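> tool_call: predict_assembly(chains=two)
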Amino acid sequence: MTEPFILFTVAGTTYALRSRDVAHVEMVDQVTAVPNAAHFVDGVVFSRGQVVPALNLRARFGFDKAPTDLSTRLLVVRDGARTVGLVVDAAREFVPIDPAAIQPPSAALTGLSGRYLEGVANIGDRLILVLNLAATLTFEDPVLEPHT
Amino acid sequence: MATRKSNGRAPRVAPDFDTRQVLSQAEQVVTTAGAIARISDEVSEGAETQTLALDRAFHNINQMAASLTDTAGQAESVAASAEELGSSVNEMAASIDQVTANTASLAVSIAETGSSIQETAASIQHVAASTQDMASASQQVTASINEMASSVKSIGRDTESLTASVNETGAAIEEMTQSIKGVSGNADDLAAAAEETSSSINEMAASIEEVGAMTERLASAVDQNSASIEQMSRSVQSVAQSGGRIAEVARDAATTATEMERSIQSVSTLARQADEVTRRVARDAEEGGASVQRSIQGITRMRDSMAQSAGVMREMGKRTGDITTIVDTINLIAERTNLLSLNASIEAARAGDAGRGFAVVAEEIRNLADRSAKATSDIAGIIKALQEVAQDAVSAANDGLRVADESNALAETGATGLKKIMSGVTETVTLVGQIASATAEQRTAGQSVVTAIAATTDQARVIAASTAEQATVANGIVQATAQMRKIAQEVTKAVSEQTRASRDIIKAAQSTTRYAVQVRKATAEQAKSATEIAQATESMRRGAAATTRAVAEQGVAADEIVRAAEAMNRIIGSVSKAMAEQGAAAGEITKAAESMRMQADQTAKALKEQARAMKDMSSAAANTAAQIKTITRSNRDHSIGATAVVNELAELRRITDRNTAGVKQTRTTTADLLRYAEALTAVVDDLRAPANGSNGRPARTNGH
């Protein structure tokens, strides 16, 4: 039994999200900056009749921001009742992954950035980090937490 | 009558004896006079010979004078040429040649002059000697005549006593008286003739004194000639030295000219080579210019094509931009397609099994989109590389254009430089051509200079030879003039002796005249004392004795006359000896001329050596001109001197003519004397005829 995942890249590393967590994928057209947002929050976008906050994963993961280009994508995800847009460098693949292939992150890794990771999958020769969406979206932000 | 007879008989024997004696004496006188006439003839002949010799001398002197004048004229022209000599070496050489020729002819003239002067001097010496001898002979003749006169006087005295004895014979005595009167008349004539002789002798003495004066003038003219000839000799010697220096300088000039000619020839060769090289350079430069033009054209064409290709490249770059845009669009479409398929997959997954087929389609669409994206990415990479290449090509083409422009500019500069080189080369060709022609001219000129200098050297050698010869000849002339001076002094001495002798002759002639007067007086007294003959028998006897003594004296006188005749003969001998000496002197002169010629030959040899010593040609040329002027002046002086000599000789000839005339007159006088002696003989014959008749025919005597 496999489960479909959406693969995306941030700063050269391929991550994976469960397809059922992703509402849809968009090209990043225009981000409207909002005042007093966290540094990893680019602003808000209007997506399918809904204002969605755009979270820059590069910034969220501690990397420098990159300019938006043709391959830049906005992954609109649902976490419970929240809908958040994740700005990633690219998102092109829809891959079914056997959950058995997903291993939990090592203890050494967990201590550092493991709280955003659910596990690490090895497909072929590719190493894919499976993202912990809830941990990624858990932060104190006046813009992102209007509903909490 | 007896007294008359005894008186008449005694003198008859004595007159008979005396008249014979007188007759024989008169005959001797006639003979002696004839001898004198012959001697006079010979003297006259000698004088004529002298005149002829003088004519010859005169002729030679005239020739000398003419040649001197000629030489003076030629020397003047030579002087003019010598002045021109300074400007041209050739002309100098020609002038030197002319000078040489003139100097040679001058030398010949001088030699002729010397021999003529020697001849003249010898002739004059001999004339002087002959005149001296003639004077002494005349003295002797005068002495003889004096003695003859004294004996005639004693005859007169004897005749007085004879007359005394003859007085007794009457008619015979009267006849005798008449005869005596006739004798007296004859004695008058004799006196007149003696006076005439005296006057002739006076004239002769005057002319001899004139000769003396002339000879002194001649001596002074000879002195002057000698001085000017010495001057000429000095100037000739300095000319010879200058000629030597000229020859040396001409030799140096010849060496220099030869070297110059050689260097001109090498210059000519170099100029020819330079001409060839320059022409080659001109050809090469022309070819270079043409190739530069060609390369300029090529560069221009290259530039154009480069500009064209740059444009094409730029255009292509623009087109690749379009392609990039299209590729971007395609890429965008591919991305959107990928996005759509991804969302479709998400939707299909959410749909579960119902969406499984849809998911497959979405998967395939995503795959196609990915391939399309990959292809567009490859195209983009290719286009990017192409764009870079095109950009590089454009910049390269731009660089090429710039380089082409720079090359073009450089080529233009090169073409300009080549044009300049061409004009320079053309100029060089012209200049080299001019140099070649100039060196050719120089070569011709140098060769003519060499030729001219060679001619100069030759002519300088010739002039040196001639001047040396001139110097030798001038020395000979100096010696000859010294000899002439000596001879002139001797002539002066001889003429003064002649003058003294003529004075003695005058004295003797005066005494002759006196004696003649005394004879006349005596004859008058004879006439007077004829009447006293009768009373003077005794004295007649004494007179007879005296007559005997006188006859003895007459004999002595006759002896002296004979001696005088012998002296005359000796004089003739000495005259002939003098002639022989003249001949010998002529031979010696000929020998001297030969030795002079030999000396001239030796001089010519010596001059060849002198020619080597030629030096400082140009200054010497000026010097030569000055000296030639001096020579010309000297020649003129010589001409004047020669003219003076000619005048003196003419004067001498006139005097000699006059001497000849005097001798002729002497001869005439001697003839007169002879006639008178014959007349006297006739008178004595007449005297003797009546004396004989008185023996044979007394009646006639008695008749008186």
